[in-house]
Amino acid sequence: MIIALNNKCNLLKDEFISYQLELAKLTSQKSNIILCPSTPYISMFNLENIELGSQNVSKNDIGAHTGEVSASQLASLNVKYCIIGHSERRQELYETSDDINLKIKNLLEKNITPILCVGETKQEKDNAKTTSKISKQIEIATKDLTQDEKSKIIIAYEPIWSIGTGLIPTIEEIDTTLSLIKELLPGVKTLYGGSANEENIEYLKKSELIDGYLLGGLSLKPAKLQIFINKAEN
What is the reported pLDDT for 164? Predict the structure, then answer.
């Protein structure tokens, strides 16, 4: 099982130091845990029980791109995974699927595993556009990639209407979407994200297509995260 922790834009320096001390106590029998901290803290990562990820990467490589962080730089910091196409970046920073396609290519070139986020809005869900929305996101994001390259991507299904709301889709809805993703990209691992927590994990476990979870708010609460891991693995 894959459990990816997305800290988003949270924690001050001293808070992150204390947070890492708590994460060092996490125990897991079956899970590959990945921490994606805010960019300033990537170089402070020092955990042995968790792998390192990034929340973003530039669509450009090293050069005159003020404020950007390249795949080459991430690789030099031993980053192994990178979240790409999160809905917050699509909405707040107008990141397009074409941008995401370039980012994925840069990551794969540096042997960093992309965690590609896809998902629909409430309006799209209500208008039965989930399938077309996600199909289009995947089609453009993986444009010009070989089948071998596509198989190296992890897909995180995050219904936009579920993120931070406490609402989650039915198991049938989740399985329908994950089945679509696995049909479009044979062999890929699929994560679920969107208000997953230690209270609803027993319900989410009913899906046999979920290969892991992308956690936002819960990632900042190590004690509850341990409960989540214990329930997810048993």
Answer: 83
Q: What does the alpha-carbon distance between residue 199 and residue 27 come to, in Å, rounded to a whole number? A: 19
88 carries an active-site annotation: no
- The reported pLDDT for the residue numbered 165 is 87
- Give the active site residue among 95, 120, 124, 158: 158
b/e for 3-37, b at 16 or more Cβ within 10 A?
Answer: bbbbbbeebeeeebeebbeebeebebeebebbbbb
15 is a catalytic site residue: no
pTM metric for this prediction: 0.97
pLDDT at position 132, please? Answer: 97
Residue 53: φ, ψ to 5°? -130, 170
Q: Which residues of the chain are under the pLDDT cut of 70?
A: none
Q: What is the DSSP string of the chain?
A: -EEEEE--S---HHHHHHHHHHHTT---SS-EEEEE--GGGGGG---SSSEEEES---SS-SSS-TT---HHHHHHTT--EEEE--HHHHHHS---HHHHHHHHHHHHHTT-EEEEEE---HHHHHTT-HHHHHHHHHHHHTTT--HHHHHT-EEEE--TTTTTTS----HHHHHHHHHHHHHHSTT-EEEEESS--TTTHHHHTT-SS--EEEESGGGG-HHHHHHHHHHHH-
Write down the catalytic residue from 51, 86, 124, 198: 86
Quote the CA–CA distance of 230 and 28 in Å, as a whole number. Answer: 7
